[in-house]
């Protein structure tokens, strides 16, 4: 119970931001030995919104408010006071036990329509927005003046328990498709803030091609191999079966072709920035690919990647034999490898991330603490909890909570 001789007061300060404003307000509270129970501040285009909930003795509250009014006037800002009852405060304290989530909305641009649609889903599910942050830098009015592809990302911190998590996920996926935006809905816990291992598919994820298709073109069987590849990525045929059939068609190809392809691999938009930041912040990085070790190792050298697991082509007398060595890295094997690397690195599985585009990536996307479908096939998007379809691979960083201001290269 609140002692009868104390008062709870919420103050709201709005106006042009300036250095020392918060210090001036709290200095007055300190003068009367007030207790700050909550404090929050936001700054949008140099316009401040500051809220402070404090407790003070009744005999001091009048003096506090009088001095705050004078200070606000001298600083050119507005201030409002609201008394808070004991019941209101206890209800607020009780809210601390509720689940917390982060909804990240991402796209080339974010319009009012997109933001309205996403926040309406939160409201329908009975979730309350606590805070809103823009993670991307400011978008220039004349986008033609910059060579950098635009991207916009807003992060909503929400509290509560969704009424129907599955229905919510489905609705967000529908909106993502209709309104050309991406989203991630994650529980806001210590694992989200402490991701440590990230595993990537290679072909059509880190690079904008399927290497086996490039090899097939050189071997004169491009269309035949491409058709098998696409069918496998859609999940229509078993990956190992499709892999065996495609590799057999490469028989007789000169191994020098592999070096030629490696040196001209089309790197996916955002990979350079993504790798720089992941290495800078100490993430362990792995390639888990149904493609070929030769190309994975090329990327490993280029970006300092820690682990590469892919398939080894058999080469005799400088020619591909149409066979491969060892077991095929299929979907099941990718998930096993993710678990194994996590154990080696002493990383909880909840701290892992997996990124891929094909049906053979679904097992590792499901095992990882955060599974992200990237420019993926419809079956993969439908089964993944997070997806990125509108921007480059560095969009992963926003799902991890990075702001552009952290990411200067």
Automatic annotation (TrEMBL):
Residues 273-303 form the Rhodanese domain. Gene3D superfamilies: 3.30.70.260, HAD superfamily/HAD-like. SUPFAM superfamilies: ACT-like, HAD-like. Pathway: Amino-acid biosynthesis; L-serine biosynthesis; L-serine from 3-phospho-D-glycerate: step 3/3. Its EC number is 3.1.3.3. Coiled coil: none annotated. One of its GO terms (biological process) is L-serine biosynthetic process. One of its GO terms (cellular component) is cytoplasm. Pfam families: ACT_6 (PF13740), ACT_PSP_2 (PF21086), HAD (PF12710). GO terms for molecular function: L-phosphoserine phosphatase activity; magnesium ion binding. Its cofactor is Mg(2+). Keywords: Amino-acid biosynthesis, Hydrolase, Magnesium, Metal-binding, Serine biosynthesis. It catalyses: O-phospho-L-serine + H2O = L-serine + phosphate; O-phospho-D-serine + H2O = D-serine + phosphate. Residues 10-82 form the ACT domain. InterPro entries: ACT-like_dom_sf (IPR045865), ACT_dom (IPR002912), HAD-like_SerB (IPR050582), HAD-like_sf (IPR036412), HAD_sf (IPR023214), PSP (IPR004469), PSP_ACT (IPR049148), Rhodanese-like_dom (IPR001763). Transmembrane segments: none annotated. The active site is at 201 (nucleophile), 203 (proton donor). Belongs to the HAD-like hydrolase superfamily. SerB family. This is Phosphoserine phosphatase. The lineage of its organism: Bacteria, Pseudomonadati, Bacteroidota, Bacteroidia, Bacteroidales.
């Amino acid at each position: 119970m609140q002692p009868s001789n104390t008062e709870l007061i919420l103050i709201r300060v709005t106006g042009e931001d300036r250095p020392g404003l918060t210090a001036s307000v709290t200095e007055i509270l300190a003068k009367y030995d007030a207790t700050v129970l909550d404090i929050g501040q936001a700054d949008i285009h140099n316009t401040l919104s500051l809220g402070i909930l404090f407790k003070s003795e009744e005999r001091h509250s009048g003096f506090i408010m009088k001095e705050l009014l004078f200070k606000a006037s001298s600083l050119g800002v507005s201030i409002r006071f609201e008394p808070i009852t004991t019941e209101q405060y206890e209800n607020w304290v009780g809210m601390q036990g509720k689940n917390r989530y982060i909804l990240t909305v991402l796209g080339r641009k974010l319009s009012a329509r997109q933001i309205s649609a996403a926040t309406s889903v939160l409201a329908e599910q009975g979730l309350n927005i606590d805070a809103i942050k823009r993670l991307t830098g400011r978008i220039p009015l004349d986008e033609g003046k910059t060579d950098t592809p635009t991207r916009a990302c807003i992060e909503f911190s929400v509290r509560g328990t969704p009424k129907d998590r599955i229905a919510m996920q489905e609705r967000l996926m529908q909106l993502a498709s209709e309104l050309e935006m991406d989203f991630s809905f994650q529980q806001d816990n210590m694992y989200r803030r402490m991701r440590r291992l990230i595993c990537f598919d290679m072909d059509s994820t880190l690079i904008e091609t399927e290497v086996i298709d490039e090899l097939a073109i050189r071997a004169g069987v491009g269309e035949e191999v491409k058709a098998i590849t696409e069918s496998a990525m859609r999940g229509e045929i078993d990956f190992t079966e499709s892999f065996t059939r495609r590799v057999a068609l490469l028989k007789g190809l000169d191994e020098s072709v592999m070096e030629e392809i490696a040196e001209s691999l089309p790197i996916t938009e955002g990979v350079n920035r993504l790798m720089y930041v992941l290495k800078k912040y100490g993430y362990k990085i792995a390639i888990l690919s149904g493609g070929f070790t030769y190309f994975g190792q090329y990327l490993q050298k280029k970006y300092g990647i820690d682990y590469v697991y892919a398939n080894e082509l058999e080469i005799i007398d400088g020619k591909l034999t149409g066979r491969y060595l060892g077991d095929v890295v299929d979907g099941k094997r990718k998930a096993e490898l993710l678990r194994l690397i996590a154990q080696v690195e002493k990383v909880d599985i909840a701290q892992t991330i997996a990124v891929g585009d094909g049906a053979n990536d679904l097992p590792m996307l499901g095992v990882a603490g955060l599974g992200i479908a990237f420019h993926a096939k419809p079956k993969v998007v439908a089964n993944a909890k997070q997806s990125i379809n509108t921007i480059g691979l560095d969009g992963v960083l926003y799902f991890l909570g990075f702001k552009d201001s952290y990411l200067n290269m």
